[in-house]
Amino acid sequence: DKQNKLIHITRTYSKDLKDAYIISTTKTDAGTRDIPLTDQMIAVLESTKHKAESRHPIGPHSYIFILRKQE
What we know:
The protein has one helix and four strands, in the order ββββα. The chain has about 70 residues and is an alpha+beta fold. It has a two-stranded antiparallel sheet with strand order 1-4.
């Protein structure tokens, strides 16, 4: 949401037991949240959007953030 400078977290992106990617709702109400954005972060997201869409197309106003655990 560039106008209000927020990321709305409403869904999760994960793998199932067969390593297929799935999009689902957050596990808890606390998982659904808004995160404030700076102008600099909006610029970074816009500059990487094309690359992300080619790898994980989910919609014109959506992004996928992937957090990988360090082992």
